[in-house]
Structures
1.
Amino acid sequence: MVESNVKTSLALDFLNIDSLLSDEEISIRDTVRSFVQTKILPYIGDWFDEGTIPTNLALELGKLGVLGMHLEGYGCAGTSATAYGLACMELEAGDSGIRSLVSVQGSLAMYAIHKWGSEEQKNEWLPRMALGEVIGCFGLTESDSGSDPGSMRTRARRDGSDWIINGQKMWITNGSVAGVAIVWCATDEGVRGFLIPKGTKGFTTQNIHKKMSLRASITSELVFNDVRLPASAQLPLARSLRGPLSCLNEARYGIVWGSVGAARACYESALDYSSSRIQFGRPISSFQIQQNKLANMALEVNRATLLALQLGRLKDANLLLPEQVSMGKLGNVNAALDVARTARQILGANGITLEYPVIRHMNNLESVVTYEGTADIHALVVGAAITGIESFR
């Protein structure tokens, strides 16, 4: 019995990483894990298959307390960055689309208001967003402006005390269901952010269909046709690209953790399957080639968890650099993709069905490796940090 328990412990936490977490962090992680097991996993395969997500899920996540959980005040929980990361890990072990909903809500939309907004804007929006009563989206990316947001074409111009916005944003998570959109525009005064409530005249959305990735997530185009906003809709403290880039860094930090959750789910699925799948009279986990795959998957999951945890500790100490977040996203998402693809091979034909989580995670990670900065861009950010030479400007 002791030997069996040791094997189980090594399989699920080979390096005893739990010993590095506080009781509070473990409690938060386990609470979110339980939510995912009861509220997400029984249904996520169908949601992915149907390309839908329940409209009341944001309210459920609000009750759980994960929306903007790392922000202080205004109805937000004010947890540590590490606790937030652990929550992202558990949410993405369920599905990248669920973690994306939470990341966009808390680390992009709510964070933008929290850091760059006025007190009136914070009091108006943040408490309701923390409860999931209002969903937010974050409009930065455009069809021709992805890795280079400074080339955006969406513009805002002054008209007396008002602003007039024209343009469009693309690949926007939560777009059509958002009660408020945080939209970044080029102006004669630099890049500015605006809060655009749903229903504002001239503001329309259109969902993007036929996706093969992040299907349990709403992705939309935002269109602005002479949208008139009062001066009070502007985020007063954001006056350059530093505004949206600071929000992206928050979201990337969540991805560093979330991708570990997706990788872990694929590894655990492959481990369980290989232990019960009998070929040639033996479980396939007894063959050397499969053990080699499982060992490398366990290595990548544990290594990625330690990387995420170190970034979390740095962030909690206010020492985390954007370049370090780039290394985390680059390394952990690439590792998660490798784990997912290896797991798919171990499951054989069963690996392509939604009866198992692997193909769903694998497809989702193909989006995660691209959004919030592509792997190529993050590699160049790390390269510039270690050489002192920027190669893409």
2.
Amino acid sequence: MTIRSIEIRRAHIELVAPFQTSFGVETDRHLLYVRVVGDGAEGWGECVAMTDPLYSSEYVDGCEDVLRRYLIPCVTPDSTLQSVLDSMAAFRGNYMAKAALEAALLDYFTRLDGVSLATYLGATQTRVASGVSVGIQPSIDALLDVVGRYVADGYVRIKLKIEPGRDIEPVRAVRNAFGDDMLLQVDANAAYRVEDAEHLARLDEFNLLLIEQPLPEEDLVGNVDLVKRVRTPICLDESITTVEVARGALDIGACSIINIKPGRVGGYVEAKKIHDLCLSRGVPVWCGGMLETGIGRAANLALAALPGFTLPGDTSASKRYFTTDVTTPFELRDGYIDVPNGPGIGVTPIPAVLDAFTSSVSSIAID
């Protein structure tokens, strides 16, 4: 079981519609895939970094550089997953680059063993409740139209992106239009300051599941203050980068819910550690998304099938973002998406589709 090479593939895919958050508008994705090739199997990982360092300090071209210069040299022909993780730990940060390589290795090794990634991680569910993230819309009428279509599709939870000036009234309109029974939450992507606590408390009247990442990622102490002044549960996203940070945030009372994104925390092994910590403390978690194609979405579904993921995540159907996915598309059925149960992540790219999106491929020999 020798690892022979690691391939870096760059690709480009258009979104079905612009996706606007408090930090910008996305109309497409510049993709980076990692492929591990070895004796008897191959493994795929998807880098979730954006084109520009807006959501986090990482960006896709930077991730490629880090992979080539520092992370892929950690792999030897006889590497184990743990040996690579131990070697990568010497390099600070760069969680999204690390997660892409780790995902490809996980896919490779679990395929060799003939087990699914879901089984490897300890999944207890065969399907995952699916929520959908709704970007900031140009008008309330447009927002209600978009939400209405997702409700008709069967999504069990709606998440609204918000920012200062586009928060209270859009949320009020959605709640009034679709009723109190619809699971509804909001995501600020760090757009507010602790001084906005009184304003954010106005969201309490809408019976939201949570307010996600209201403050800058570094301001854990500010979240402690916010928790005391806002009744709606505070969920952290960008702030949580490691299990140690998660433990500290919970210890000081900075949040009561955590959104676990594998790319943000350095991979699925670290994501499981955060899950296990939260499960042991009775803290709900859910799996966030980064507009992944089918490769990344399959791995996220495996993670979201763990027992602590009690809130619907952002594991939406493929057609939510892409006209054509690089794998067999994931479909929504009665509000749920099936967890792949084949070896590894349970899916493989469709060669003709992937090639059509690909801009470059380079292979690095492992010796």
